[in-house]
Queue: 3 jobs
Job 1
Amino acid sequence: MQRHLPRAFGLVAGASLLFLYAPILVLGVFSFNSGRLFHRWEGGSLHWYAKALANEGFRGAAVNSLAVALGATLLATFLATGAVIGLHRAGARQQGIALALIGLPLVVPEVVMAVATLIFFSLLRGATGLDFGLGNLILAHAAFCLPFAMMPIRAALRGVEPAILTVAADLYASEGAIVRHILLPLLAPGIGSGAALAFITSFDDFAMSQLLAGPGQTTLPVFIWAQLRRPLTPEVNAMSAIMLAVSAAFICLALAMVARARFTNGPCDP
Amino acid sequence: MSWNRTSGSAVTMAEPEEMSLPSGCQTAEPSKARYLAIENLSYAINRRPVIKGLSLDIREGEFFTLLGPSGCGKTTLLRLIAGFETPDSGSLSLDGTSFQRTPAARRPVNTVFQNYALFPHLDVAGNVAFGLRMLNWPRDRIAGRVEEMLKLVRLSDLRHRHIGELSGGQQQRVALARALAPVPKVLLLDEPFSALDLKLRQEMQAELKRIQTALRQTVVFVTHDQEEALSLSDRIAIMRDGEILQCDTPQALYARPADRFVAGFLGDANFIAGRLLSLDASGASVAFPEGQRAIIRPGAHIPAPGRVCIMFRPEDVLPGHGAGLDLTANVAQKTFLGPDLCLHLDLQDGTRVKLRHRARAELDAVRPGQRIAISVPLAHLHIVRDTDR
Amino acid sequence: MSGIGTGRLLAWPAFLIAGLLGGIPMALVIACSLMKPGAFGGVEWGLSFDAYRALLFRRDIFSGEPVFSADHLLIYGRSILLAAGTTILCLAIGFPTAAHMATRPPRARKWWVLAITLPFWTSLLVRTLALMLIIGDQGLINGLLLRTGLIQAPVAMLHTNFAVLLGLVYSFLPFMVLPVFAALERLDPRLVEAGADLYAGRWRIAFLVILPNIRPGLVAGCLLVFLPALGSYVVPLMLGGGRAMMAGDLIALQFGGARNWPLGAAEAVALVTLVLAALLPCWLMRGRAG
């Protein structure tokens, strides 16, 4: 089909790829700039990274980000796995409603979601005095990471032949045994992948974290945003580049897990 | 009128009423012969009846086949026995104990599926051991039993292979070993060889028969392939539309089919119409359209006076008159079948009749359009119930 | 059918969290919009339609009378226009990109998909920051232009409608490319060959043969770009700087500095209504096409 397309299409494709990556690459390259300007290269240096890592605020925000992401990931992945396993025998209508409720964060604008959560926790604090501190943020993150964790797990479930569950029952496995010995091992790569996606989503989040976080609960994106108030130096490049590296690492992890599973389990054609 | 249902032959015949075999295959014999007893089973899917008041007795150690066209309900019946569906009414019992309320996970019955459904995350040994693990067998007993099973299906070297690396035949054997490992009282197989090519299929059929005989395992086998059924089974039940039409040994079914459908399903059959004149101790007196008369001993089906359907196999037709029932026919088509020759013939009244014979000089000479004489020995004429639906 | 049935219990915790932190808060937003603002943020209990009135009217400082104010309409209007513009630009860039990707050999195609998807999984904040560093007054472009003497003073690219549009396209381009690519992969290549056989030139093939036959993919892409762009927050916040406000950062403002929660809630309700209104025609069309 290629030779029937306008030749310009290839150029546009290349240009859009360039467009998508150029800003990130520029950011990355200039994070190694020894000068403090964003348009003049003055030789390579790691000193902005050193500054960033020495920055107490940055370190504190990094710790918060990791703690929240970890907590949200564990919670979201656990809940998502339960939801996928619990829903797979449910009727189509039930599944539809359930998925719509869980997928709400994907449809509603993130700022509305953030504002709603803020109102909720404020009301909770006002009415009952309950405030979980960083836990508030973890719960909020878990709620909107839930659909992201669910996607790879559902995809993995679709790859499981339904006859296998019937055979397991035929071979004296109770419902719990089927989940433990058949479903979980077969869903494992999807669960791992879902966990990685949930982590990235929580780690990268700005809107919810900015609106919800109280003092001492600053996460990395919120911290970087605060830096924009002051005169900018490539230190912010370094901090951003570190964030990018973490996200990229996790997405590669997610992909590797799915790829490895396809390799070991292999196609099973009778 | 007494009727020995297991041997399928009439003891006395006096009433000229049409009597046919009840829909089912039951014995009045002691419980030893009723190992797996199915009584009056009914099951409907979306209010459409799929199994209609079916009864069946399967003997211990028997290789029993459910044979029928697609949609006849044989797979559904198998699933009811396995416990994947619950019957609407009727009972299932094993060795005297009723089990239609027991869930599948607790029935001592195992199934081999058509597409094997092997566990992709376990290796060969892991698959075979699965049922034993679920039954909480001690570890060393499991290991021993797995070895035994792998040796039985001749896959001992492949115990640590992953499922994806096995060929179709090997996967089939793992599925078999997996189902046999927990010593099931009844082994169910749902068209297990239909996905294999011819040579492999024949190999696996022989394997299965060998294993079944060695273990004296009770087997219920489902297939739509009549050759497979005839070659493997101790008894066959022919099913159609949720009912059992006839149930007997392969030889008896082939030689004495009760009705037209069974006759046509188990190989080639010719059918001609006749008129029943009388029925007495010496046999049934039947008149044929061309004027001939013949005395035929009835088989599984006792006819009523009037129109009857007479069946004979193509391989029993002889060229030339004199062997029994003499007929004259026009040759419509001549087909070369390797060692055999098949002639498609049209009788006077237009009925299509097939003749199948080892190639012989006199048959070689026959040309389409010719009129030839054929005859069928009386012993090979059978009266069958005419169920043309 | 025997097997997993009561496993449904496993799904309840997920519903709980989703309901508690998804469904219920949304209802709370509506409730909040019908209350009075508290002195230091938060709300004071008491039914009031002030927030909704404030969307279209403001109190004149002298007469105290409500006077029609187009401020909100301006911001929401800009949101719609920018979202529409983003969609059109993404379509113009995304369709050729997706078409090119669809004609690559299978292995290369996988890398293309990975390359287009990867930016989505990095922080939007960081990506938008990267744009800022390029188009800002001290950024890459202005810096280079000043140094080479092509201009005397930095060109103001940041904090304009243009910047927000650029940021939105940058952010949502993959959302257009992927569904269109999926639709193109499913397209029967023989249609294209038939077009070529009947003397259609390359551009005609693209627009008269391919485009009409991937309409579902195009619609999916447009929805996936338009709706989130409408409710976008980070991009107008960073690249608009308060001078090119969209509904998203306006809402956040009420919960931050402006401390008028009910107004923010009302604005949020208005935004969600807008999103649903945009979704409705597509949902109806899908129902009719069935």
Job 2
Amino acid sequence: MRNVMLAARNLLRHKRKTFAVLSSLVIGLAGMVVFQGFLGETMRGFRDSMILSGLGHLEVAGREGYFEDGEYDPYGYALEGSEAISARLGSEPGVAAVFPQAGFIAVAGLGEVSTTLLVRAYPANRMHLSPLKAEAKAPIDRFTLGALVAGTPIRDGERDRLVLGEASARILGAKVGDALTMMTVLPGGRLAGRDFTVCAIFAAAGGDKTFAYTDYASAADFLGIAGPPVLDVLLKDVSYTGEVERSLPEGVAYRGWKDLATLYVQVNSMLNGFLSFIRSVILLVTLFILANATNRNVLERMREWGTLRAMGTRRRDILLIVVLEGCLQGLAGASLGIVLGFAVAGLIDVAGGLGYSNGIQSYSIMVRPGLDSVWLNLVPAILVAGLASILPGIRALRPTPAECLRQA
Amino acid sequence: MALISMRNIEKRYRLEMADIQALADVSLDIGIGERVCLMGPSGSGKSTLLNIIGCVDKASAGRTIIDGEDTDSLSDSRLSDFRNRTMGFVFQSFNLIPVLSVFENVEYPLLLRRLDSRERRRRVDEMLLKVGLAEYGRRSPERLSGGQRQRVAIARALVTAPRLVIADEPTASLDHTTGRAVLELMVEMNGKAGSTLIFATHDPTVAEFASRIVTLSDGRVVADREVA
């Protein structure tokens, strides 16, 4: 206790000097907290937009193979008892919506022009198109498939309507109200054909070249399937994922959002690695600065070490005092840095966040560092500061007390 | 009976490729309650001898027995405990810990002894009263005069009731009047406690406070006499 007291008092002995030494740690960690908050919020937004743009929090299929080659094969992977599974999942407290999905490949033709489309079908009330260039605010119980460029989305009860991607519409020369002839191959090689009316044209970053959407009932009828190959599950929050996964009936195959949003997982892991690298650089710089400052400090206080040892303080206690001082410096610097980081993040949030637009939709990215950024920065900073003090501490205890007193 | 028994003490330093003989064949017995003044010019070996007696330095050769302990055979941590248990130090530059208050400076050696807080407070209050600084407990040593600081240092040296008090040039940083006052206090408190006092000085007026004067020159004891 006496060592902690001495260490703490010494830290406050030269406040300006201490602060000057700690400034690199304070500024570095404040920047880290803000950057971490920015990236965290960006990645959360990226994750949620990926989930809500058609991946879902969970996809429940009849067999494992669906996830390998069944996405656009509605015949090979029918999900038995989909209605019962849907009802069971729907009663889970964390579930926002459960609905069927079917995907198929079709050739769409308009006059002399034709193109291949990947068509996804959901119930009409589970498809959402946000206003173009407006701030994206996706409802949590449906997929936001992109921004509405023209027309109106499919309404409940409407049949054989198609929401067509902007690029596809351009290729086909299609506009709202045009009837596209859609052809697809049924099991056994038969061809099915039907006219779908373009009710809306949408834009989505990268997704409007090949995709088109129709309502699930029309698709099931067109394809001649009795039930969906897959159910999409949307949750109120990602934290319910595990709980809902555990409530799934036995025998079904499923994928959670982490398996589905592979791009998010890869980018997130890359950015986390990048953050760890930056944090390591900051801590390494701090290690050298602190080691150098502590070394000078220890040499300046040789008489003090000699006096303490003459009075009976053991060598190990001298080392402990120096290392404790280092740890307390780390604690003080990291705490100040974290507080400053949270303050800056708060100011950015109050100012409305950082604006971003991909040309189709705009976003306000908030800077909200999580509580994990407290210990992620605090613990390494304390350890590094303690580590930086070990060698100077050994330097303080190596001479005899008489040598320490003489060096004064 | 001798509290300190030193036989054939030698101390050599190596300084820039040259061997310096700081002490040569010093043998000395110091009894309980003696007030010994180590005198001699600068470089005569006073401080080196005081450091060896105070167990803050080791002799290159010879044997030192203090209070029945062969100090050369003690490990570093046992030597630390031994110093805390047996000795009190008064330094020329006071050597108070600047981050501790007057009270805490005096209390520090008692903390090392792990005495309970009530006992520590009792002893520190008593000692500060004796040195006339009862009102200054909360003050920082940096806000005290030189004489007051040295009185704090004396209180710190005596608070553990050590058998041996070692003072290296205790008045060198003080003016003549304050120096005498400090020495009078040291001698008086030492006399009451019955401890042995060894101090080094090159000032003959300071030596008046000793009961015995040991004179050193070039690392050797050249005179050792009792005084009235």
Job 3
Amino acid sequence: MKHLEKKHPLAIRWFHWVNFPVLMLMIWSGILIYWANDVYRVGWGNHTLFKFFPPAFYQKFNIGQRLGEGMAWHFTFMWLFAINGLLYVLYLAFSGEWRQIVPGRGTLREAFQVVLHELRIRRAPLPRRKFNGAQRIAYSSVIVMGALSLLTGLAIHKSIQLSALTSFFGGYEIARWLHFWLTIGFCAFFLVHVLQVARAGWNNFRSMITGWEIVSEPESAQPETTKAAK
Amino acid sequence: MTNETHNDIAPEISAAPKPSDAQNADAQNVETQNADARDDTRDDETRSDEKYAQKPGAPRSEGGYFSGEEKGEKAKSELSGDDAEAQMRRMSRRSFLWSIVAVGGTVGGVKWLSSRRLDSGVPWPFRRVLQTNEDIAREILAPRRLAPTFARSQIDPIRTNGLIGLDDWDASEWILNVEGLASGETRQLVMKEIKALPRIEMITELKCIEGWSVVNHWAGARFSDFAALVGPATQSGQSPDVKRKPDDVLEYVGLETPDGGYYVGLDTATALHPQTLLCYEMNGAPLLPENGAPLRLVTPLKYGIKNIKRIGTIRFAPQRPADYWAEQGYDWYAGH
């Protein structure tokens, strides 16, 4: 027996799909800015495992010599990113949707089980709720990361007027470093998110667009429970 | 991937109510009445299918979500089997048409933005936003706020960057031209007159717009002391009183290298800030030519691009002066 079940409220779908291109533009313009002082890497001492970013990357995406352009886009779309994010958080708070996302007791344990399940180590089925523990942690984290991106961005952008904020993040240089790694975090989230959505399938993806999901209930569920009860 | 697309019956046919649906009608009616009370706009999505229009309980893909219908329990459609899939197909079709419009609109919007007429090196909509950002910053932030200062132990080595306007240097010929004065005349100052002003030392962070920063020790005269000495023209036309009526000084200051190759514009509030110096010493030694000898501007309130080296002319002006980098797509204000 199949039926339609409401999954994602219209407001959240809007926030999500507005955020997607805006965040992409923020990351792209951020890279145009970062190019002008591309000092971060993964490594230790004289060993560099990966440099952000290799010359080939800049060449491929035509990143070089576009600092001014990057700043113009960044300081324009920051408004959309901030307003959309703020409205999203307010909506979560006032609609009660936050209950679906904010981790609670046992979330960490569940998230661990989900990871084991995803890695095919654990067989037991995932909980049938809107978001499992791993999703809760991931979706809460990106909200916190978004807020931190805004705050570290402000700490860099208005480092004198908001010097208290800048010192809170450990100074101008560290605020920039944090801002950069938060962006890398968003990229990592994006990759995993897209991968997981692809794995979850069409019905799930479609629900982020229409709001509804087709749910199949096993018809034999009733007798089996009765049996189990005996 | 999908378990419902195998159904090859045309949506119009499968959407027709089947006899078995009558059993669900009551339950559907309950929900639909609520839905109708909330929202009368459902016609637009049922128009394509007359039969559906009479069929209550069709879940609506839009509307009513802000009314708290989902609080507590999950919204559920009582449609079953094929009907659920047919209904989903209809909603999907509509939603995905919207998606195409949205994607097209976004791509078109971005293309539109990037192809606008350039206003000083950047498409004009961005110039407007930068201007708005500046207005907000000047309106709500405190221009007199002091930049953090650092300890001697935190001083970095000098990092030289940007040699535009520093060609052809003859120390013996240097003189500072000052324009836009209350007297209406151009005044010329020599180094001795600058050095006669109170000497200020500070250790502040210079931030390059490229994204790096260095803490340096600077020594020089406060720009505000210099302004009080030369007497800039005022907005009111009255005689200048830089210390007591700084807001009456003409709104902008333009600075240029002797050869005119590099030039910056500052708002007067920044120029008169106590940490804005006409600097002649850096890290305990006289300025080197590549760092702006004999006299440069230092202000921790602005990116390095505004900290002009080798000043040849200072001009008080009622309008925004030209600015080398602002002409090439950068924010004119460039302030922290």
